[in-house]
Amino acid sequence: MSPVRKKESKSLPMKTSSTDIGYEKRWYLGDFRTQSNGASSKRLIFQYYFFMQYVVHAYDHTDADAYDRRMAVRPAHFDTVRDLKAKGQFIIGGALLDPDGKMIGSMLVVEFETEEALQQWLQREPYLIGNVWDNVDIKPFRKADV
């Protein structure tokens, strides 16, 4: 049997495995034709997608113009993060603050299928392009199953 077309796609989150790599099970209703008589039948098709979560700690430059640069590109940064969220790649994030409540950096937990996808996001991240972030530390992240 070979699929004729993909009709519908839905995402069903599955429990994260006990390794560093999680998975998601997605399904779609496929229209298949049997080879013997050409009749059409519906089958539920499952595909597994693997992904990795990362925690990003990014600290701002400390020069006199750093805050102004941050505020100038902040709307573009938010647009980028909203795009990640729409794709299911943004888990949580926000500003890092000093004891006085001043923004000094950012923290994000993001999710990508590949290291290359992570690098592509970083290449278009406005806070990096706009010279806001100075020191960026990225580590693989695994949510505790408690």
TrEMBL record:
It comes from the Bacteria. Residues 52-142 form the YCII-related domain. This is Protein yciI. Belongs to the YciI family.
